[in-house]
Amino acid sequence: MSDNIVRIENLSHRYSRAWAIQDINLQIDRKGILGLLGSNGAGKSTTMNILCGVLNQTQGNVIICGIDMRKHPKEAKKQIGFLPQHPPLHLELTIHEYLTHCAHLRRIPRNMVKQAVEEVKVKCGVAHFSDRLLKNLSGGYRQRVGIAQAIIHKPQLVVLDEPTNGLDPNQILEVRKLIREIAEERAVIFSTHILSEVQVLCRDIVMIEKGKIVFADTMEAFNNYIEPNGVQVWFSNMPSKEALLQIPGVKDAVIQSANSARLVIDRNPAICETIIEVSVEKGWKMREIGLEKSSLDDIFKQLSS
Ligand SMILES: Nc1ncnc2c1ncn2[C@@H]1O[C@H](COP(=O)(O)OP(=O)(O)OP(=O)(O)O)[C@@H](O)[C@H]1O
């Protein structure tokens, strides 16, 4: 049949008249983390809800480990763990009670429930809080429990919808570490609107904008693609615009003050060295140089055009 963990074919969905997503194609063949990046309303949740069998698509197919989600939802869902944006936690239960409840919902055989719960508590670092009520946990620990319920049945695919949203910086680091660990054994889809989250965590990236995929490749390819095209420079002996335009690789120059300019450059990894060399040669006394980072909005604009 198929070696794909996920295959999404020509997936489109409309809630009323307008299409929320259109013609999404996506394939995941290996373990590791894929980042699904998109701004608010781009269509991430719609795609994930369909992928996880929570929403029925208008058109297209979702195949999980060779099983068609629409034709065999129960079988397909066995291969998936899902942590939605608003985790389905029962705050009045303890961690142990909640995960035991999840194990039953996932139809883990009765004689294996205890072992599955203990294993997942250790894996997600919540074993020492086993008897604590969920309502008394910090945001980071609640997310750990949310991830625990998503992997308790050892699925091949885990889908995490904005899992680091609302956490403090330490909690974000801890949850990222846990996500990396669980991705050693399975494919993980990590949805977010924060580019830097995808850059630190994911091996592959899919960008979605206005319901359509605008970029899908490795993180490395993405980082190469978005290389900055602007440089800020500060000089003590400010050269003229004409002199700056003589630097090889500089396509345009805008003088911004008596000591600074913005240069539009070729995508050339050695451009900063060239600018520094010319500055030294001409005695411009460079004080500072910095590559401009594209904002996510710029990147989306660039990719959608
Ligand atoms: N239940 C719904 N009924 C009608 N329209 C909806 C519904 N849910 C989402 N939409 C619309 O579908 C489009 C995609 O929304 P979706 O929630 O999938 O985006 P998203 O990328 O997950 O955004 P966010 O990060 O804000 O959750 C948006 O235009 C949204 O307004």
Number of domains: 2
Coarse structural class = alpha/beta
Distance between the termini: 37 Å
Strand order, sheet with most strands = 6-7-8-3-9-10
- In round numbers, the mean pLDDT is 91
Question: Which ions, cofactors or small ligands are bound in this entry?
Answer: adenosine-5'-triphosphate
Number of strands: 14
Order of helices and strands: EEEHEEHEHHHEHEHEEHEHEEHEH
CATH class of the largest domain, named Alpha Beta
In quaternary terms, these chains amount to: single chain
β content, as a range?
A: 25-35%
CATH superfamily of the largest domain: P-loop containing nucleotide triphosphate hydrolases
The amount of helix comes to: 25-40%
Reported CATH architecture of the largest domain: 3-Layer(aba) Sandwich
Overall 3D geometry?
elongated
Work out the radius of gyration.
Answer: 24 Å
**CATH fold type of the largest domain:** Rossmann fold
Note poorly predicted spans. Answer: none
The description of the largest β-sheet is:
6 strands, mixed
